[in-house]
Amino acid sequence: MSALTIEFAQCRYGLAGLLPEQEKQVRTRFGALECTEACEPDVSIEVLQSTDPECFMAKLVGPVEYRISMAYKPSSVVVEGMGFSATIDRAALRTQMHTCMSDGWFVGGFENLFRVLVSYRLFAAGALVLHSAAFTDGERGFLFCGRSGAGKSTLCGLADRLQLRILSDELNAVVVSSEGFALQAMPFAGDFGQVPLPAPPLPLTGLLGLRQGTSPGLHDCSQSEAVSRIVASCPYVNADPVLIERLTDRAVQLVKRVPLRVLSFTKDATFWKVLDREYSSPHPALSR
Known about the structure:
Layout: E1 2-8, E2 11-18, H1 20-30, E3 43-49, E4 69-72, E5 76-81, E6 84-89, E7 95-99, H2 106-124, E8 128-136, E9 141-145, H3 152-161, E10 165-168, E11 171-177, E12 180-184, E13 202-212, E14 217-220, H4 223-232, H5 244-257, E15 260-265, H6 270-278
Parallel strand pairs: 2-3, 3-7, 9-13, 13-15
Antiparallel strand pairs: 1-2, 4-5, 5-6, 6-7, 8-9, 8-10, 8-11, 11-12, 12-13, 14-15
């Protein structure tokens, strides 16, 4: 059995119990984030092998999207997906992953679990993982939260043509910084940001919702709408009855410090002129 450690966002995740073929898949996907120093991980993931596929959710045929199943208990969170089940201990975030997969399906199941575990780890550290798109011009970081179909990947495609650096079009983190909040790149993405690279946090310059419109523009929204958008964009933890009150309080603190505005955009590069102009200096609401 093999072991390796993945490090990003100031946390080390140690995996133990991997078969050689499982380790190869994880290294192929996350190798750029491997920590080679001898150290104790912050979070431990023990992979336990099973030979009985009947114990797990069956693999679906063809390229499909599916939802993992989650059960929230007072002391643990149970996660189930195709070919695996796992229990996350809330107190220590120790995780046991049972799986019958060692072929190419394993890394997909592991990543589904890893996304959940990272969301819980960062939440415990005061951060939020959001279903969102994010990019930077090298100095300013912009995060766009929104439901599926709101235009996150479309916006990333437009930003990519402008040579803005895409962090991810799927999951990004807002972390606590000495100045309040910062934008942290995550190794999870859809069409943009798939290659995980070590990256320090960026200033969270713009926190935005999205809607497609007939002309580009920024629109203010109420605090209650902003909080609702943030909570709705935090996968896994926003369905957890143990955490929902803390999540809501954290969303309130975030939008008080970095007010959320709604960007309406068309499918061209004109949105960037609006953002570049509006966020060239601190927005009045940010200076209070």
